[in-house]
Design goal:
The chain is built from 7 helices and 6 strands, in the order βααααβαββαββα. It is α/β, with parallel strands linked by helices. α1 packs across α2 and α4 runs parallel beside α7. The longest helix has 17 residues. The radius of gyration is 17 Å and the shape is globular.
Length: about 200
């Protein structure tokens, strides 16, 4: 880890990009159902939509990536790009860490769409890591929404902010409900790092 620069480890899906909004629209098409028939109040894995009888999450995900370019076309979460630009401008090193390569034979599409999306939305980043073990690449503080990833990061001693959505309601804070709260928590974490104090993640 670079001791001279504060590193923010940023997940993409559900944190910077509106993955659940995008996959819901694609799933409605894939399932041939009205959009309003698919609840937006989902758990991780989207079991509420009854996708198992159609091949399950992996098959829906592959369709979304390879046929509907979800990683290129999804909308950013409100204020995320602007605040990441602001944080980067204040000297924080943005490290994108995403586990988008979990399905075989779709890696090229996933990587290309991801880079295009980041560039098209002017999202700054110093590094981009496609990996499952997010703690292995090192950051001073992480922001994520996936319950399993957050639990694993915290077990490794990684300071992790929960970005709130319906999949992670049972997890303890610190948590952010929007990107203005992310900004505040990241700046607090950097100040603790600079001064050697303990507070936010005590």
């Amino acid at each position: 880890m670079d001791d001279s620069t504060f590193i923010l480890g940023v997940d993409l899906d559900g944190v910077v990009g509106d993955f659940y909004g995008a996959i819901r629209k694609i799933a409605a098409e894939w399932l041939d159902r009205p959009l309003e028939a698919l609840t937006a109040d989902v758990s991780f894995g989207l079991d509420e939509w009854g996708i198992e009888e159609f091949g399950g999450y992996d098959r829906l995900h592959r369709f979304a990536v390879t046929q509907r370019n979800i990683f290129r076309d999804m909308e950013p979460i409100k204020n995320a790009p602007a605040i990441l630009r602001k944080l980067s401008n204040q000297g924080i090193r943005v490290r994108i860490i995403t586990h988008r390569l979990f399905l075989k034979y779709s890696h090229r599409a996933s990587i290309t769409q991801t880079v295009d999306w980041l560039d098209n939305n002017d999202i700054p980043y110093w590094d981009i890591c496609f990996m499952n073990d997010k703690g292995a690449v090192g950051a001073h503080v992480y922001i994520d929404d996936a319950p399993e990833k957050i639990i694993n990061l915290r077990k490794q001693g990684c300071k992790t902010i929960v970005f709130s959505n319906s999949t992670n309601r049972d997890l303890s804070g610190p948590r952010a409900d929007n990107w203005f709260e992310v900004e505040r928590l990241v700046m607090e974490a950097r100040e603790e790092w600079r001064t050697g104090t303990v507070g936010l993640f005590a």
